[in-house]
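Much of the work behind modern protein science is quiet bookkeeping, done one molecule at a time. The protein below has been through that process, and both of its lines are reproduced in full.
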Amino acid sequence: MKFNLRPAAVALLGVLSLTPALANADQATFPAGSTMERLSKASTLRIGVKFDQPLFGLRDLSGKPIGFDIDIAKLIASKLGVSANKITWVETSSSNREPFLEQNKVDFIVATYAINDQRKKVIDMAGPYIVGGQDMIVKKGNPLNIKGPDDLAGHKACVISGSEGQSALAKKYAQTQIVPFDVISKCVEALKNGSVDAVVTTNFILAGLVSRDPNNLQLVNNLFTREPWGVGMPKSENDFCHFVSDVLTEADKDGTYGKMYDATLKTYVGGDGKLPALDQCP
């Protein structure tokens, strides 16, 4: 399924924000009754994001959300013809993302959201727009010599409640003492004060945390899962899934995706800045 998408001009902001500013797209037109028509005509577009994820979703000093997930969300909004001032940013956590979609609290979610079969039972997901994996951070110098998940046996590892990290440890590394929190910032504080011995989550998130505090945190750099991130949406909105896939594909072809990736992520996580192969929509 293909949609005729009008190009949105993209300009990179200054070095401090590292966030592309998407110009307002011309008013797009969509098939009557489609999800895209409904979203484009709504008084506001409600997008679920995180505000505690360095590189992906944070608030800057003025309170505006910034990061790679924010850029992806703005790109989709611009292709719907929705201007930035019509976006309502809704803070989400790993544990409430599916409920927010099921309860119609958001229109879609871009929030470090891993694609998996369990989630696809209750929501739809487009993507992946990036692929990473679970890793760990420890105190600078790695005093406990934790080199991988097997070394967590008998140690306390902090995870985000409802996250891929929590699931991976529970399934394969059961001797780990898992300590769940609702937000990653609490895990980092627990690591610093010695309440836990490691923090487990996606390597991209961890790289962002280390970039903000390199004197106290250290990345183990040993991936033990594959984790594709996608855009979450309510179940059975397959037309919107195809639309988002087309937006991502077009952005990769015209260089928009690469510019966004280079401006926000490349310095910290490397990579070639190319869009991964997309999953098929329902």
